[in-house]
Amino acid sequence: MTARYLILEDGSVYRGESFGAPAVTTGELVFNTSMTGYQEIITDQIYHNQIVIFTQPNIGGSGINQANYESILPSIKGVIVRELANVSTNRIRRLSLDQYMKQMNIPGITGIDTRAVVRRLRQTGSTLKASIVPEPDEHAFDQLSATVLTNQQVAQVATSKPYPNPGIGSSVVVIDFGLKHGILRELSKRKCNVTVLPHTATAEDILRLDPDGVILSTGPGSPYDLGQSVIEMIQLVQTQIPLFGIGLGHELFAIANQAKVTSLPAEHHGMNHPIREIVTTHIIYASQGQGYAVESKSVDRSRLFITHIDLVNGTVQGLRHRNFPAFSVQFFPDGAPGPDETNGLFDEFMETMHSREG
Amino acid sequence: MPQNIKKVLIIGSGADKIGHETELDAATYQVGTSLQQLGITTILIDNNPFSFALDGNGIDQIKILPITLSNIVTVINEFEPDAILPNLGGLDAIRLMQELIETGILREQNIKLLGIPDASIRQINNPVLLNQTLKQMNAPTTTSKMVRDFEGALTITSLIGFPVIIKPVAPSGGSTRRTCHDNDELADAISTALGQSRVGQAMVQQSIAGYKEIELVVLRDRKGTTMQIAAIEDFDPIGIHAGDSIAFAPTQTLLDREVQELRNWAFAITRKLRIVGVNHVQFALNSATGKFYVIKNSPYFDRMTAFAARTTGYPLAIVCANLVAGKTLSEVKLPASFAPKTALIEPAMDHIAARVPIWPFDVLPAAANKAISTQMHSTGSTIGIGRSTEEALMKAIRATQFHAVNFTIEQQRKLSDDQMVQLLIHPRANRIMVLMEALRRGYSISELAELTKIDPFYFHKLKKMQQLEQSIANQPGDNQILRQAKYYGFSDRFIGQLWQLPEKDIAALQAQDNIKPTYKEVDPSAGEFEQHSGTFFATFEQENESTPINQKKALVVGSGGFRLGNGGAADYFTASILQQLKSENYFTILLNNNPNSISMSPALSDKQYIEPLETPDIMQIVALEQPDIIYLPNIRKRLYQELKNLDLPIVLLPQNGAILSHMASGAEFAFNAIFDGKHVYSLGIAAYLIQNKSGFGEPTAMVYPADLSQSEKDALTEQGVRDIQQQPEPGLYQTLFVKTDRLHKEQTRIITLPEISFLSKTLGISLSKIATSLVNPSPDVDLELENVVNIQVKQSSAFASTFPFKSLQLYDEPITANTMVGAEMAFGENTTEALQHLNVQGKFQFHAGSLN
């Protein structure tokens, strides 16, 4: 293996060894503390523009398999690990992580002091840009600071054309902002007749399909990069059809109802924070991946109420509309990867649709 | 808190044995302390002389009695507790709780059972009942069915698949248990089993041998909030007892989906049984199909809860104490060192921990020849923490290695190919070394995975280690290779062997090339928060997180994994030293690697290093920390020499009762005393009950005080005082005597570790603390030794060691201080009564020599 460097815009340099594609890459550096599910994380489109550091050192131990993709063409910029297990021994393996990343043109570095990088990020307290480069020279740092990351992230990862995922149950429209497959998987489990529409779909496009419910999917980047048309679409659709927003979809739903979304000083990616479901006071765990959060005090209590709160950082994790059958969560209830404890939200969405049909 | 608990009776765990060592006492100390902090009075019943809790650590009221139903009732009547906590006494305590429930006393006196509801106690004690519950929940359990003929067996086998286990139902006389892999074997086994059965029935049981074993540790509060603390993967497949298996945290080969499914079931079962506090659920996973089965549920502290707590840094015992006291997880506030105070953040690990069992072959060579199986044979374990699977495993193996001849490479090289195949299929205790040797001999990964049922992932890792070993051997002196070897956890000694250089030279080479360990903190948030557990491990990376503090510092080197002989007593002593040093305002640093040890309880020291106890590893820590004083176990001769060369102040801990050769044969006595350098303070005379042919002064069984006439006592005391007065150093001493027609003085020695524990509990003083202060007197500490002399012993006490022979299926092994696994003690009005109380279950046999 050849030497490869992770360089940060604050000037720090970490040496490791190359795996995956031999490409040079630049992105925002974020860390994920999940101990399982590297395949799901690497293929989640929320990591468009981002280089992910896994805090769990042993990555690659169960290979890559056909059942756990969260997208067809992952858009993650790079993967940083302490110890690549370049083996693939799980019964449903297809590829090793290294092979997969080569195929998908994703560069990686193994042998990095990942804990040192994470501590650095924590001390900095803000998101840093970073590059994976063959030499940590002046040129590389110049390139790094010159790189401007796109803010047209959703357009780059979401579908541009509608497509169906037919089923025999309720008709659901999923608006794709860079959706993770987990959402479609959960709808398939519930036999839904799904149509995925591009993020540019208008309320008219949606209503024409006469769906029983609409899901605003997960996706990368800032909700404010999407423009007013999406907000208007949500404002109209929520008055007529049951609506469920997830991740970026949740942030858009909040904005459509006059709440403010702000970027977190440090992104949070993991599955170990306790989340309180306010009505029941139950504590639940779910996969989280967020660089933005709904500002709690901006929530207009006459329109929305807060349903879920992260007990560690106090962020709003769920909202529900007072007048319409519309709700949203910041975390990922499809549990791919992560705990299944919030999976019932999909059932709740089904019930909302049924009660409306009935 | 709705339950207004004021007084809790904790059921202790008794003598250490194969199956549990000091982890239960360590948990008792921690849970007891937390309960006290909640304003609850704690009472402990136990009879383990090596118990740290039984010295009053975390405990308000101590009752030294054998843990039997009638004694528990006695204690209840004496102290009138309003609750009983049974989850610190292992499965034995759970069994006793069922008997206690059946007496009706709990209902009559309105005593609450904490942690496990009555109905669940019954289920934990009765696998059939528990299985029914699991079936009702649709939890995946293994299938077994009674059949009357071959057709019936075929039907059930077609459902569950081969292999199946066949055995007779209600056998008359002989009973054959067979594993069948095809119809022919099945036909044969069924006809045998039906022939053996009195009722013409055979049991067809699904076999899970060879499946992967996964263990989850979870916490639940009384309101039903449940969280996962750790998921642990066993390296060895089912068929080998989990306690004898190498284990890793977190899981190394599982998909997220698999872990989540296990989590869902672990949570569901814990909720169904309404467990409050800790629960440990074991699963079997069939890697070929992805199907898994619930195989065991243990809602009490055990080796895996200890492993989970030590390796994640999560304060499991503290939180658990709060939960059983009635708090919810949301209400529990973590100690000051944690950044977010909520107990609800599930631990995330950014390191890997390996647990490797220790087998007692150093003192019982016969045990080394035993196949490892579904019965546990190991006495303890060590952990290795690193930043790769390889490094963690390497460090854990190094941590166990101390004496074991069977772990050497030379030993493995001698194996014939036939022996090798036999050992692969019928593993022995040193299996990991055999696997490495098999890789050296060119066995392929798939072959080995097939033969051993161990996940190929691990063979990839072992192969990597073996290839690195080859590269080291091929490139002597190469600094890049040296750096890599250290990165993956290789010891200086091993590299030295491969390069035919002394260990010291390897350290010198590293210094030359600036190859230095970096210490990382065990942090349950994986770096997300700025918080400090105070527990560190070494790895060879970019950033070092351990900075020495500028304060009076003591480094205490622990005794490592639990071994026969010194295990419990040495750990008790280490824990006491730490406590004493802390009270003398030392910043205490502990170096140890036994996840179960009391000394590793986080509150006992200011800083802990989880590292192998090999000389170079210790020297690195000494170089970083620059301690003012170092405490070493007596057996660490080489380390002692190295430190001496550096002119560092060292204190050696007492030995483990070395046998001295006989001068005369007869009843043996010891006059015990404290010597402060000037005065000798008498601690009285004890009598040994078991005379060993090979020597005297074996602390395997004894009574205190000895039944001697006043004139004999005076004579012994006089001579003892005179002898001890001449010792060059202050300390705890004993002068040994043999009584034939008269009393012969034999020799004076430092009081042995088992006797220090026993005498401390007998006299109600902490001799280990006194010993600590004597060797390193602090002007701030007044030992008040005058008070010690004035102790009036009103009772007699008796001590007897317990031995592991039955668990190990060994016979005719010597009863010596080196082969003891644990001990029990008891009090009485006189010697006879103390012995009666001790021997309540009739398990001890004493020589009467010293009793008259």
Automatic annotation (TrEMBL), chain A:
Its EC number(s): 6.3.5.5
Domain Carbamoyl-phosphate synthase small subunit N-terminal: 2-133
Recorded catalytic activity of this chain's protein: hydrogencarbonate + L-glutamine + 2 ATP + H2O = carbamoyl phosphate + L-glutamate + 2 ADP + phosphate + 2 H(+); L-glutamine + H2O = L-glutamate + NH4(+)
Residue numbers spanned by region CPSase: 1-172
Keywords of the record: Amino-acid biosynthesis, Arginine biosynthesis, ATP-binding, Glutamine amidotransferase, Ligase, Nucleotide-binding, Pyrimidine biosynthesis
Protein's job: Small subunit of the glutamine-dependent carbamoyl phosphate synthetase (CPSase). CPSase catalyzes the formation of carbamoyl phosphate from the ammonia moiety of glutamine, carbonate, and phosphate donated by ATP, constituting the first step of 2 biosynthetic pathways, one leading to arginine and/or urea and the other to pyrimidine nucleotides. The small subunit (glutamine amidotransferase) binds and cleaves glutamine to supply the large subunit with the substrate ammonia.
Family: Belongs to the CarA family.
Protein name per its UniProtKB record: Carbamoyl phosphate synthase small chain
Gene: carA
TrEMBL record, chain B:
Gene Ontology molecular function: ATP binding; carbamoyl-phosphate synthase (ammonia) activity; carbamoyl-phosphate synthase (glutamine-hydrolyzing) activity; metal ion binding
Record's keyword terms, sorted: Amino-acid biosynthesis, Arginine biosynthesis, ATP-binding, Ligase, Magnesium, Manganese, Metal-binding, Nucleotide-binding, Pyrimidine biosynthesis, Repeat
Family matches, as SMART domains: CPSase_L_D3 (SM01096)
Cell inner membrane in keyword set: no
Top-rank lineage group of the source organism: Bacteria
Any Pfam family the entry gives: CPSase_L_D3
Domain (ATP-grasp) ranges: 131-325
Gene Ontology biological process terms from the UniProt entry: glutamine metabolic process; L-arginine biosynthetic process; pyrimidine nucleotide biosynthetic process
Keyword match Repeat: yes
Protein known as: Carbamoyl-phosphate synthase large chain
Organism (species): Paucilactobacillus wasatchensis
